Amino acid sequence: MIFKMKTSFLRNDYLRNSDIPQYLEDGVVDIAIVGENLLAEKKKNIEIIQKLGFSKCRVSIAVPKEVETDDINYFQGKKIATSYPNTLQNFLKKNNILADIHVISGSVEIAPNIGLADGICDIVSSGSTLFKNGLRETVTILKSEAVLSKTFQLNNEKQKILEKFLFRIQSVLRAKNSKYILMNVPNEKISEVSNVLPVLKSPTVIPLAEKGWSSIHSVIDEERFWEVIDELKEKGAQDILIIPIDKMVI
Q1: Same structural domain, 51 and 159
Q2: Residues 6+ apart with CB under 8 A from 246
Q3: Dihedral sign, CA of 229, 235, 237, 238?
């Protein structure tokens, strides 16, 4: 996905994903949403400004399932098929492995079955494609996700537009990773319960009609959701409600 500021929205239909890093470096486009794995492979002068949390995958090495070892030295003097030759070469060099890299543009996973290679290096998501082709993942070289990246050729006017755009993206991402929480708490437990809620500056405390009780409103991180809920219950919180957040502006 590519966004050309002040002009038009360009779809992937008009160019290959592999061309995006070059277009960014050349300033043909100003910003783009692209995979980290592609940027690492192309080695272009591009700045990553925000990880977006979707399209997560990894660049991994896989071998036929009958190969019992996970040791990278298995590939010493052997052939590896890949569509990520630069990423693979850098990894092999760091580990002092001399292997023959066989570059394939697609369907890398079939290479061992037809005798082209002893293993592969490719992107992996669920691992189902490897399984279907009798392969198993042994080493992860790189973890990747979609990122917002930009050219270094932005002028001041475009940079200001990008900052507004980035602010809005971050507001959505913060909301996605957070939940709004409401609970009823005995007044003598408000301090203890509040200490479990570290996301915002201070929780909102509203007295209830029932004497000695208050309603506390705050925000919790999605990653610690159940851990926080357990702590809140231990501290005396009751009638806990969780509400999704659309956007979160801080």
Answers
A1: yes
A2: 175
A3: positive
pLDDT above 90 (res 20): no
Q: Hey, what are 207's tokens? A: 């007295």
Are 26 and 129 in the same domain? no
In the block, residue with structure tokens 């494609």:
129
Mean pLDDT calculated for residue range 64-85? 95
Q: 244: how many CB neighbours lie within 10 A of its CB?
A: 10
| Helix, strand, coil distribution of the chain in percent, nearest 5 | 35, 30, 35
Collapsing DSSP states into helix, strand and coil, what is residue 171? Answer: helix
Count CB-CB contacts under 10 A for residue 55: 15
- The 10s digit of each residue's pLDDT in 148-167 is 999 998 899 999 999 999 99
Contact between 231 and 240 under an 8 Å Cβ cutoff? The reply is no
Question: Which residues sit opposite 214 in a β-bridge?
Answer: 185, 207
Question: 168 and 189 in one domain?
Answer: no
Check residue 159 and give its pLDDT: 93
Query: Which residue shows structure tokens 């405390």?
Result: 205
Burial label for 202, CB within 10 Å (0-12, 13-18, 19+), is: exposed
